[in-house]
């Protein structure tokens, strides 16, 4: 047992050299970082992390030096570049992985996905205590005939969690660019090998602008605000879905979801929320802490990014995420901030009339200086009342 643990510790600092049909790369793992070195040939046109092709953080972009590209990913701050972390609750072993996209001119501009992974053993695993056993008792005699039985030991695979966003019924691959208010659906699911064995539950999720602003949307397995982010639903326990509409923060064009997912044997225990049902991310009730699940064997930390674009850059207002907005079931999860123009003294008001799965109707009302010539319904009502009173007073 001690030899196995020492071997696992030594593997952490070893080079892992992998060669595919088109790309050669090496992965070096340390306790706090993952270094990926990729050989850049003439056919390679671009190298980037999955979902982060145009992400502005330099730490998430490769460093090119001649014919070699290197990526140094932090394992202490896994959310910086979207590294997935898997913690084995039984052994304490932590696995980190990410996907790197390689674009080449080979075979008509193809894309190749390279999975990179590091396995880090816990520090306590290297401390092994040897106990001295007593000698065999006096008169001990081994039987001459031994009954040998066979034992079969099966090991369950380590779960691989995947996060996807579906837009208009189509699963989006690569970097996701959307407009505010776009109906989206987040999907969290297991790979085909792990799906029959494990179940999922989203215990915590937070949305952030990748800078300083953040908002908790799922706490203790229950949704904090279903108008902002709907409940996670599941049929078989290993495929979770939740609908939401794209929103943005005032000072960033990128939005990041940070989540913690519990992986349990067979199926996770649902959390009883305010609607009285067992959910995997339903409306929140007063629960101080989530009860422990005896079937929980893994805890996975995930993250997902999308970029907000605008079709109408000429608009003076852009729909922005406002955590303190008033919750109204008839309105979408976004609000408008007024932006004044000192030159034209013109204001635009952006109201959403109705949102369907496929269509998003928007009314833009122009309030200019000549708007005073239009009589409002209240003014017309007062005018009618005055005329009626005057008619009654006539002799």
From TrEMBL:
<dbReference type="InterPro" id="IPR001507">
    <property type="entry name" value="ZP_dom"/>
</dbReference>
<feature type="domain" description="ZP">
    <location>
        <begin position="28"/>
        <end position="280"/>
    </location>
</feature>
<protein>
    <recommendedName>
        <fullName>ZP domain-containing protein</fullName>
    </recommendedName>
</protein>
<dbReference type="GO" id="GO:0009653">
    <property type="term" value="P:anatomical structure morphogenesis"/>
</dbReference>
<dbReference type="InterPro" id="IPR052774">
    <property type="entry name" value="Celegans_DevNeuronal_Protein"/>
</dbReference>
<keyword id="KW-0732">Signal</keyword>
<dbReference type="Pfam" id="PF00100">
    <property type="entry name" value="Zona_pellucida"/>
</dbReference>
<dbReference type="InterPro" id="IPR055355">
    <property type="entry name" value="ZP-C"/>
</dbReference>
<feature type="signal peptide">
    <location>
        <begin position="1"/>
        <end position="21"/>
    </location>
</feature>
């Amino acid at each position: 047992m001690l030899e196995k643990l020492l071997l696992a510790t030594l593997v952490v600092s070893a080079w892992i050299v992998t060669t595919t049909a088109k790309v050669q790369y090496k992965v070096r793992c340390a306790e706090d970082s993952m270094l990926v070195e990729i050989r850049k040939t003439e056919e390679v046109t671009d190298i980037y992390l999955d979902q982060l092709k145009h992400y502005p953080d330099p730490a998430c972009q490769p460093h090119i030096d001649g014919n070699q590209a290197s990526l140094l990913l932090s394992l202490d701050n896994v959310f910086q570049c979207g590294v997935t972390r898997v913690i084995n609750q039984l052994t304490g072993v932590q696995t980190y992985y990410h996907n790197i996209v390689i674009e080449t001119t080979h075979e008509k501009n193809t894309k190749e996905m390279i999975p990179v992974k590091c396995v880090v053993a816990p520090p306590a695993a290297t401390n092994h205590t040897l106990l001295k056993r007593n000698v065999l008792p006096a008169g001990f005699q081994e039987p001459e005939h031994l009954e040998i039985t066979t034992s079969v030991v099966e090991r369950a695979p380590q779960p691989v969690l995947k996060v996807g966003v579906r837009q208009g019924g189509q699963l989006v691959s690569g970097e996701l660019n959307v407009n505010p208010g776009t109906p989206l659906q987040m999907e969290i699911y297991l790979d085909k090998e792990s799906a029959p064995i494990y179940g999922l539950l989203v215990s915590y999720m937070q949305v952030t602008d990748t800078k300083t602003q953040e908002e908790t949307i799922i706490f203790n397995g229950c949704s904090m605000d279903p108008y902002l982010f709907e409940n996670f639903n599941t049929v078989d326990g290993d495929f979770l879905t939740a609908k939401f509409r794209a929103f943005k923060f005032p000072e960033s064009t990128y939005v990041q979801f940070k989540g913690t997912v519990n992986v349990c044997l067979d199926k996770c225990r649902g959390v009883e929320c305010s609607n009285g049902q067992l959910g995997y991310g339903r409306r929140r009730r007063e629960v101080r802490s989530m009860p422990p699940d005896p079937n929980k064997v893994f805890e996975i930390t995930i993250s997902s990014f999308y970029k907000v674009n605008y079709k109408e850059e000429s608009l003076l207002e852009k729909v922005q995420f406002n955590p303190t907005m008033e919750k109204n079931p008839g309105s979408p999860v976004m609000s408008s901030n007024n932006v004044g123009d000192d030159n034209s003294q013109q204001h635009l008001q952006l109201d959403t009339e109705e949102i369907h799965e496929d269509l998003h109707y928007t009314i833009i009302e122009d309030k200019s200086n000549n708007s005073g010539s239009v009589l409002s319904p209240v003014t017309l009502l007062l005018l009618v009342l005055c005329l009626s009173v005057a008619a009654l007073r006539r002799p």
